[in-house]
Amino acid sequence: MNVNDKIKQVLKDKNLTPSYFADEIGVQRSSISHILSGRNRPSFDIIQKIIRRFPELGYDWILEEDQPLTNVNPRPVAIPAIPRKPSPQPEIVDEKPPYIAPPQSSVAKNKEEKTIERILVFYTDGTFREYSPS
């Protein structure tokens, strides 16, 4: 009996669906589907997750080719779920250039001397509009 067959046997003996089993051990459902169909063999990481969730199986039984399944408790054992690593969050980059104050052509000695002479607005089509206080 190979590892894939042993996983099938566990599902049968514990009366678990492949989806529930995948959720219980913390792997994608498609991974279990591929294992059960014979397309893939389980990775050591998946085997570790199975043993963490169902320690009564033991590494010896699941990794040995010819050991029969014995003394398997049909009820799930209450073991905390394996914590998943959070997916990395994308770094937020501020795409605005830093504000740079425009150069001043003349420096007023105090605030009362400053008055607006004119305002120019430039448009992306190359035109502009000038505003003057009246």
Automatic annotation (TrEMBL):
Name of a matching Pfam family: HTH_3
One function term, GO molecular function aspect: DNA binding
Domain HTH cro/C1-type: 7-61
Superkingdom classification of source: Bacteria
InterPro entries assigned to the protein according to its UniProt record, in alphabetical order: Cro/C1-type_HTH, Lambda_DNA-bd_dom_sf
Sequence segments annotated as region (Disordered): 80-111
Official protein name in the record: XRE family transcriptional regulator
Taxonomic placement: Bacteria, Pseudomonadati, Bacteroidota, Cytophagia, Cytophagales
